[in-house]
Design goal:
The protein is about 55% helix and about 10% strand. The protein has a three-stranded antiparallel β-sheet. The protein has a single domain, classed as Winged helix-like DNA-binding domain superfamily/Winged helix DNA-binding domain (Arc Repressor Mutant, subunit A, Orthogonal Bundle), CATH 1.10.10. It is an alpha+beta fold. A hairpin with a 2-residue loop joins strand 2 and strand 3. This is Transcription regulator ArsR.
Length: about 110
């Protein structure tokens, strides 16, 4: 692998390294939960630029890093775009029903609060 290519590879935890407390921490922030809800609704990969969040670019980058490092999302480069995908298979295998329960609760809260 060339040095340029290696520098564009982002670290992710292996499935067996994903911890429940890390996932819950990552999803406890409203912006990160919003990102995960958008990824779940889309069902595919989205580039970072497709998210419109009311925070600075550096804060957005931080939120994506927390989600990646906790094992909630996978990020890969495709050309110059950083693509984001929900690690649903890994999360469902480790914590059956957790992601759907959290997404459902978030949707109900959003509807309740308007």
């Amino acid at each position: 692998m060339t040095t340029a290519r290696a520098s564009r590879t982002l670290p992710h935890p292996a499935r067996d390294e994903i911890r429940l407390e890390g996932v819950l921490h990552a999803l406890s922030d409203p912006m990160r939960l919003r990102i995960v809800r958008e990824l779940a609704a889309d069902g595919d990969e989205l580039s970072c630029s497709q998210f419109v969040l009311p925070v600075t670019k550096s804060t957005t980058t931080h939120h994506f890093r927390v989600l990646r490092e906790s094992g909630v999302i996978r990020q890969i480069y495709r050309g110059t775009a950083k693509m984001n995908g929900l690690r649903r298979d890994d999360l469902d295998a480790l914590f059956p029903g957790l992601l759907d329960a959290l997404l459902g609760a978030a949707a109900r809260q959003s509807a309740r609060l308007g």
